[in-house]
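Task 17 of the worksheet. Students: predict the tertiary structure of the chain below and write it out as structure tokens. Keep your answer in the requested format; marks are given for formatting as well as content.
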Amino acid sequence: MKVEIWSDILCPWCYIGKREFENALNRFKHKDKVEVTWKSFELDPSAQKDYDGDLYSLLSSKYNVSIERARQMTGALIERAKATGLTYNMDIAKATNSFDAHRLIHLAAEHGLQETVIERLSAAYLTEGKHIGHHETLIQIGVEAGLDEADVTKMLNSNSYADAVRKDEYEAQNLRIKGVPFFLINQKYSISGAQPQEVFAEALEKIWEELYPEVKADVTSGNAQCGADGQCQ
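Model answer:
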């Protein structure tokens, strides 16, 4: 079973979705038969690398709301993250451009460290308040994850993996993906958003039953429904 996940490090819901999916996958008895690939998606490809204001002023400008309203908008998000076991420190989050971070993720994939780098990048941005648009931060994260410092530095100082990032984003456009996280299973079933782990768990079970009906398990119906239209809702 192949699972492709489009996400952006700058998307706080993506980190929650990542954790919910991982929790479901850890419960799945056929976990060793699931191949997970992360795909690049930039929420704002034109975003500045260095932004003068804080995250709340950026949200205020983007959605044309007050600073106070922008803070309120993140309240439920922070609580949802906490319920998933994550700590979000939005007050110190550094708004930036995620393109180079996505290139680092592609480099990590070639060394079997893709998930590790994504985890470190997500925590660095949403919890630790690190500037993931700066090369020194990306080098540090890459080394912490097990990559060679010289390889990371060389990649960041070149255009390496730029085409790979754009290819992922082109695929997202063809699939009409408008938001992330977005999960595509076996290029047929899709799950959109940071769904509770129960939704992911049931979808994995149902899709496995379809793939291998001879070993069909007795799974009761719940929130997730996978229909002939190729959608899990």
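Marker's comment: Strands lie at 2-7, 35-40, 182-185, 189-192. Residues 105 and 114 are 6 Å apart (CA to CA).
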